[in-house]
Every structure is written in structure tokens, then in C-alpha cells.
Amino acid sequence: MSDASDLVRYELRGEVAILGLNRPDKRNAISDRFVEAIAEAVARATREAEAGVIHGHGKHFCAGLDLSEHSQKPLFEAVLGSRRWHSAFDSIERGRIPFVSAISGAAVGGGFELAASTHIRVAEEGAFFALPEGQRGIFVGGGGSVRIARLIGPARMGDMMLTGRSVSATEMERWGGVSYVVEPGKALERGIEIAARMAQNAEFTNYAVINALPRIADMSSEDGLFAESMVASLATMTPEAQERLRDFLEKRAEKVKAPDA
Ligand code: 1HE
């Protein structure tokens, strides 16, 4: 195990980079230094791995913005600070490799925003999500108004921000904000399994999934269909696709299995 920084532990396991938020005494609350450590660890994972997992050391995934730092910031510093979160989380959402977040305990405020920038969310029974910005007198600033609103819908996000209520992992799964709910203590293990599986995909396809899909979702249907044809044709032309297609036709590749097989 080597550290990209003491705030984010970094481990490369095969082709999977495991990023552990490591400020458990403050419930992994994200300070300015912490945002930079996340950005550095993501950049390293993007260079060295084919997929990544983000999890929290201690009982909680992440308690969001470090409120002790935030309360003292001048206006323009706050704007630039929010933009640094955007840049760090963009490098996750629209980078080169897919990321899973493995969530236990609280994913609150900016912690939920971080999870929303990953491509797959695995949450343990007992994990919970909240947006207490209303109670704190602030607003989401880590990309939540875009990413969380698109993930679960602006009405549900508005409900969470207005009421400050906590949403369980199973309810969040019903809302589409979580893809897998697992037993307590199992999120990281499952997250690593999922990442290892994604790491076996063709790298161009992974790149296209994470970069083309959200952009196409922002386009008109006409533009989206046109863009899809372009990306699909480019993908097929990669040598990796040619080899993988040949492997299937010559019976060397795995078949698709039924879910219960
Ligand atoms: C913190 C933070 C924090 C904990 N900033 N220090 N986020 C919030 O409003 C969530 C605030 N946190 C909580 O509600 C709770 O801490 C938890 C539910 C996450 C965990 O509870 P618990 O009982 O395990 O821990 P604790 O005793 O509340 O906290 C332990 C320590 O962490 C304590 O410090 P200590 O010096 O007294 O030991 C807490 O003060 C500290 N701590 N959370 C700073 N967030 C880009 S915009 C995003 C906008 C937002 O993220 S708003 C949501 C902010």
C-alpha cells in the first residue's frame, strides 16, 4: 500500500485502483487539501488503472464539505473553491476510466456529490444519504445540482434539500441513485469486484460509455442519435474491437449468461 497523500490512501490491486478517503476522525469531511488529494489520486488512477473504487475509511463514506473551513471563506474564494470541486469531480465523471463508489454510513452533502460523480454506486444496508444544506444555510457546490438532480430527479433532490431528511440505501436504490444494495460491511468487496469486471472491458468502450452517454443525454434526440452512430462506428474500428469480435465468432469468448446462471 502506498499513499498518494495521507488524506486519500491509494492502492493498485491488479488493474483496479482503490482510493480510500482517510480522515475518519472528521468523518471524511472534505477540506481544500482533501479536494486536491482526491484530484491527485484520481489522476494517478487514470494513469495506472483500468477502473477505480472510492470508499471511506471509518464508519462513514463522507460527511461532505468541511464546514469549519467553509465558514471563514471570503465570497470569491468560495466560488473558486466550488470550481475546484467541479474540476476534481469532473475528472472522475468524464475521465478515462470508470469509478465505483462503495458507500457505508453517511454520504452527506458533498459526500453524495462525490458519489454522484462516480459511475456506479454500491451502498450497504444502513448507509444513508442526506443534503442538509438547507439546515446549514448553504447550497450544494460540488456539482450536485447537476449530477444528483439528473440521477434522482430535481423534485427528489429538492425534497432532500428542503426537508433535510435522510434517505436509506434501499429507498435510494428505488430512486435510481444506487445500483446495488449489499449487506453491512460488503460494499468495498463488491465495489472491487465490479471494478475488476469493468477493467476487462475494451478501454475505448469504457471511455465512450462515461464520456458519450452523459453528453448524449444533454442533446436533442436527433443530435444524440447522430452522435451515437459516430461513436459506435469509431468503437468498431478499434483493433481491440476487431480482435474481440473475432474471438466471439471463433468461439473463444464468453457467452452472455442468464442472471441466475
Ligand atoms: C465535521 C463534519 C463536516 C463531521 N465538517 N467537521 N455536512 C454536514 O452537514 C454533515 C455534518 N456531519 C454530521 O451530520 C455527522 O458528523 C455524521 C452524521 C456525518 C456522522 O456522525 P457521527 O456521530 O459519527 O460523528 P460526529 O461526532 O458528528 O463527528 C465527528 C467529528 O467530525 C466532529 O469533530 P470533533 O472535533 O468534535 O471530534 C465533527 O465536528 C466532525 N465533522 N462532519 C467539519 N462536514 C461543495 S458544497 C457541499 C455542501 C455540503 O457538503 S453541506 C453538508 C455538510
From TrEMBL:
Protein name as annotated: Crotonase/enoyl-CoA hydratase family protein
Family named by the database record: Belongs to the enoyl-CoA hydratase/isomerase family.
InterPro entries: ClpP/crotonase-like_dom_sf (IPR029045), Enoyl-CoA_hydra/iso (IPR001753), Enoyl-CoA_hydra_C (IPR014748)
SUPFAM superfamilies recorded: ClpP/crotonase
One GO BP annotation of this record: fatty acid beta-oxidation
CDD domains: crotonase-like
NCBIfam families per UniProt: PRK08150.1
Keywords on record: Lyase
UniProt GO molecular function: lyase activity
Pfam families assigned to the protein according to its UniProt record, in alphabetical order: ECH_1
